[in-house]
Amino acid sequence: MNYKIIRYILGSVVCFEGCFLLLPCIVGVIYHEQVGLAYLIVSLICFLCGGLLILKKPKSLKLYTREGFLTVALSWIVLSLFGALPFIISGEISNFVDALFETVSGFTTTGASILPNVELLSQTSLFWRSFTHWIGGMGVLVFILAILPLSGAYNLNLMRAESPGPSVSKLVPKIQSTAIILYGIYIFLTLLQICLLMLNGLPLFDSLIISFGTAGTGGFGHKADSLASFSSNVQVITTLFMILFGINFNVYFLLLFKKPKQALKSEEARYYLGIIAAVTALIVWNVRPMFETFAQALKHVAFQVASIITTTGFSTTNFDQWPEFSKGLLVALMFIGACAGSTGGGIKVSRFLILFKTMKKEIQQIIHPRSIKVIRFEGKPVEHGVLRSINTYFAAYMLIFIVSLILICLNNFDLITNFTAVAATLNNVGPGLQLVGPTGHFGDFNALSKLVMIFDMLAGRLELFPLLLLIVPSSWRK
């Protein structure tokens, strides 16, 4: 166990957060809000603490799988703890657990809020909440790898631990170049959405807030009704970009390097888009009588389906009032999630595809015991190690979900509220149904439930295992 490299990376993360906190300070100056001073104080604290941690560079920069997973988990916890301090210092969210819940929800791109009325927050804090989505969307350690490379191939252990999906590979030979390409695509799509929103009459501040939430598939809004009060053009643009950010960034890499045929062969992307189209059609059929026109129904349903499957969490209508069939489909989308290698949450389309192919293989094996069939995904054979990790992931996921649900049921809320609260936080979706629906909030849960959901949000964003390793004693042995 290389404790020194863990300490050094944590110091770098804290220093970078100090830089990030300067942006809301600028917003505070622009809007003449004294709240910006709280962000400046925490920024200075970050520079001091981070500077002390990176003061002495370790001799060995090697980072193996175990250190990589532990470093990522600790980095996100430290990031959230420091990120919650401005809310507490400014007094806008005085309770520590509430402030931590809001911050973790931001960084993990969940978008679940404990605030009954988000419009009471200052512009400075509204900017910070949404900017945490953008930081967490692609991953802060991926950002650091793009700027401060460590030791060659060992960087891949950090990227694998932080990136969503069953497997992560290098796009190009150098991992630093891979990180730069990923963030380049991420920044380009974000800027493109900002420009399109501004061209449709939206102010810069509103465009930034919505684009940060869309890019990170987070969903923190700055209006009480999320995006319901915005124009149809804004809603359609946001729908499109939510879907785009839910696609594996490898597809964009192939398009960028003029390999459209390979990009179009992406099995996961095709199923992802197919699921969106199929569920949208079913829900439109089911809710059509609730809207004046077919076009209006299609617009709201397409927005909500895109928002839920990409785990963004924006809303343009109260889908908690839709028929049970439609709500059931939306809950199913919470679990499916977006593509691996995107900024979306959930279990991921790729895992379900491989799982179904495994089931199909087992059924055929029973019918034809002597047949030999290889499971293929994206045109390549799926290795046994990948199948084993997916099976283990599903087992761990179910265990965490069941334990979390039992603990949250101590609040004595209705089962739909409790079930969808766990589903929304573990899958990084944001809103659920009933008390935690699009017009509700998570503030009524007790401190224990909020801590459980904080764990769930972090576990969901980091694909379970980095956070589970923290509580396994043998992980820390030399």
UniProtKB/TrEMBL annotation:
UniProt KW keywords: Cell inner membrane, Cell membrane, Ion transport, Membrane, Metal-binding, Potassium, Potassium transport, Transmembrane, Transmembrane helix, Transport
GO molecular function: metal ion binding; potassium:chloride symporter activity
GO terms under cellular component: plasma membrane
Compartmental location: Cell inner membrane
Residues annotated for K(+) binding in this entry: T109, T110, G218, T311, T312, N428, V429
Domain of life (superkingdom): Bacteria
InterPro entries associated with the record: Cat_transpt, TrkH
Matching Pfam families: TrkH
Membrane topology field: Multi-pass membrane protein
Membrane-traversing stretches: 7-31, 37-55, 67-89, 134-156, 177-199, 236-257, 269-287, 329-354, 394-413, 451-472
Chief location category: membrane
Keyword hit for ATP-binding: no
Alphabetical list of PANTHER family matching this protein: TRK SYSTEM POTASSIUM UPTAKE PROTEIN TRKG-RELATED (PTHR32024)
Similarity field: Belongs to the TrkH potassium transport family.
Protein name: Trk system potassium uptake protein TrkH
Lineage start: Bacteria, Bacillati, Bacillota, Erysipelotrichia, Erysipelotrichales
